Amino acid sequence: MPRSRLLPVVALPAVVILLACGDLLPDRREPAMPPAADSAAAQAPRPRARPKSADSAQPVAPLEETAAFEQIRRSLRRLVAAEQGFYAENGTYTEDQAALGFRPSGQTEVKFLWLTSRGWAASGTHPGLPGRDCVVFVGDANAPPTTLRFTRSGREGFVVCDLQRGPRPAPVAGSPAPAPPAAADTTSALDMVNPTVQMRVDLRNLAQAQEAYFATQGAYSRRVEVLQLQFGWQRGVGVTVLHADRNSWAARATHTSRPGKSCVVWFGSPRTRPATEADRSVPNRPGVPACDR
């Protein structure tokens, strides 16, 4: 028989054998599904995660932290200038930010810690800096305010913040970069106030000191050195009493940055009311300073 005719005859028995052996192989069934959970348990809501507290908030990136603190500093410095301007005109301080024409910078929130006719203190916070703040005070204070976290405090007019001082910890692999070192609080916000406002403020302070002196001595003082001032003159300001007796007094204030110009004030019934050096301006009301332009 030719070879081409033998191939179908040989292949047919092989197919029959394979089909027969297939019945001997194990079944290939789909894996059994786990038993269904109880319907009530399956529909029960998952417990909610506990909200994170302020202390567990995600750390702020160093650059963002620096910007947030700078917003607070800028706000408190502007607050100092606004309060000094208000005091120069009215002889008292105020918590009314609208009356001051003041609004904090960015997301900063400003809160007064205390305020009297002779001084005030305030803190500034930022939502990106939970549990930390900056503080500043001006005028008569029993004790300077302190920051929330590191209880830092400073001198009058100096804005101090909750920045970590001392050496920074060594960086750890995979951790955020350490924050930049705390900036030194070496500049007083009072030094940035307009020199004319500074002179007017110190003459207002002199008026209060003269009243306190009169209450104990029965006369006004001819010398500023004997007055009980809780805080000295602002940097660059010089004050001279021109006249004082039992019924009246007058004084002049100058500033190193404004040579040839001055502010003057009088109280009571002086024989001659003082005039400023440049414009010869004379105050028209007692206790209210007049200044050169």
Describe this structure in words.
This protein is of the alpha+beta class and 293 residues long. It has two domains: 57-165 and 178-192; 195-291. The protein has five helices and eight strands; from the N terminus they run ααααββββαββββ. The strands form two sheets. It has a four-stranded antiparallel sheet with strand order 1-2-3-4. Strands 5-6-7-8 form a four-stranded antiparallel sheet, with helices on one face. Helix 3 packs across helix 5.
Q: Helical content, roughly?
A: 25-40%
| Rg on CA atoms, Å | 40 Å
The number of distinct β-strands equals: 8
User: Shape, please?
Assistant: elongated
**Main sheet strand line-up:** 1-2-3-4
Q: Give me the oligomer status.
A: single chain
Low-confidence stretches: 1-26, 33-57
Return the string of H and E elements. HHHHEEEEHEEEE
Note the total helix count. 5
Average pLDDT, to the nearest integer?
81
**N-end to C-end Cα span:** 133 Å
Return the structural class: alpha+beta
How many separate domains make up the residues?
Answer: 2
The percentage of residues in β strands lies in 15-25%
| Biggest sheet character | 4 strands, antiparallel
Key phrases:
single chain, 293 residues, alpha+beta, 2 domains, four-stranded antiparallel β-sheet
Explain the layout of strands and helices.
Blueprint: H1 3-22, H2 39-43, H3 62-90, H4 97-100, E1 109-116, E2 119-125, E3 134-139, E4 160-161, H5 195-217, E5 237-244, E6 249-255, E7 262-267, E8 290-291
Helix pairs in contact: 3-5
